[in-house]
Specification:
It is built from five helices and no strands. It has helices at residues 2-25, 34-56, 62-76, 79-91, 95-122.
């Protein structure tokens, strides 16, 4: 039960952080939802750092990993919003931004995880 509570708390903080990023960066004047993009990229970088650090050292407990990686990063990043925003691009016939947003999100997201793992090796 303790693990579930840690994930719950971390997820709450992550969701609130994502909400504020989206509130200020996802404006109707933008063609690309920058808030969702930024949250997903930062979350990918952070989970790379956390799990990379965890794999090389025993300085982080399983509880800390659950709180930060599963909880915070899980609540902070959002595949469902990413998928919904892409559905809106398709619905509106904006195939160019659909392709750009999808490709860049995946490419930069994966790169951010690898960069996070690399950064963790320097810590």
């Amino acid at each position: 039960m303790k693990q579930a509570i840690l994930v719950f708390i971390g997820g709450g903080f992550g969701s609130v952080a994502r909400y504020f990023i989206g509130k200020y960066l996802n404006t109707s004047g933008n063609y690309i939802p920058y808030g969702t993009f930024l949250a997903n990229i930062l979350g990918s970088l952070l989970i790379g750092v956390i799990l990379g650090y965890l794999s090389k050292t025993s300085n982080m407990s399983q509880s800390q990993s659950l709180l930060l990686a599963s909880g915070f990063c899980g609540g902070f990043t959002t595949f469902s919003t990413f998928a919904y925003e892409n559905q809106l691009f398709i619905k509106n016939g904006d195939y160019f931004n659909f392709l750009v947003y999808t490709f860049i999100s995946l490419l930069v997201g994966f790169s951010a995880v690898f960069a996070g793992i690399y950064i963790s090796k320097l810590l």
